[in-house]
Amino acid sequence: MSRVTLLERLKELQKTPKFQNRDIRTISSILSTEALAKHVEACEQAAAR
Predict the structure, then answer these.
(1) CA distances from 34 to 15, 22, 38, 48 (A)
(2) Is 45 helix (H, G, I), strand (E, B) or coil?
């Protein structure tokens, strides 16, 4: 998956009630694409709970 796609998914997650008051996107600037994919996956799992 491309970095742009991952960032778009993270942007959408930021809008969910679970993450509205938390900054889950700033870290993406220093993460590799692989690490970013894991971060997005973890956030998606947390949002589903």
Answers:
(1) 23, 22, 7, 21
(2) helix
**pLDDT 10s digits, 11-49:** 999 999 999 999 999 999 999 999 999 999 999 999 998
What is the Cα 32 distance to its own chain's centre? 13
pTM above 0.85, yes or no: yes
CA–CA separation, 37 and 20 (whole Å): 20
Handedness of CA 33, 35, 40, 44 (dihedral sign): positive
CA 16-19-24 angle, to 5 degrees, is: 120
